[in-house]
Amino acid sequence: MQPVTPFNRVPRDALDPALLPMWDATQALHGDTTFVEVMGNAPAVTRWYTDSFYGDLFHSGRVDRKVLELVRLRLANLHGCAFCNRSDRLAARAAGLSDAEIDAIGDYAAGPFDARQQSALELADVMALTNLKGAVSRPLYDRLKQHFSDAELVELGVVMAVLTGMAKFIFAYDLVEKEDYCPLV
Question: Which of 84, 122, 129, 170 has its CA 20 to 30 A from that of 180?
């Protein structure tokens, strides 16, 4: 489903120059620039999201990139974001995940994932917007602790909280294309 946002869209020629590469990349990959054009109303917020969240935390934090890409793709799949699924598949490949791994995200317990990756994917299921009563149980925490420090778990949780919060934002503002199965529309 294509987005039909009621929010003002900043046309490309009026965007903050720092957002032009994002507009161009979004147009090339998705053919729809609604997200960037609405975010263009608040360039400082957009720069925080791209530079601080993605630059300083997602791409430069403690947790390895493959795990982050797995959980990001898992959340996008659960939330039904077509825009995210396309982008996140490419990012997962760039991080070294195989097509077999990417395709197994839906049934990760049976997939080609090690115990570390499976525990992170299980945490993603807890953090997903589709799991309103999700909570980290003691058994899940114990499995996670076999592979992650508490500092890494805090970081992983914050990354997923921002991703799920952004999912809520993009769906509430109708900024991106959704999968037909999207449960959040």
Answer: 122
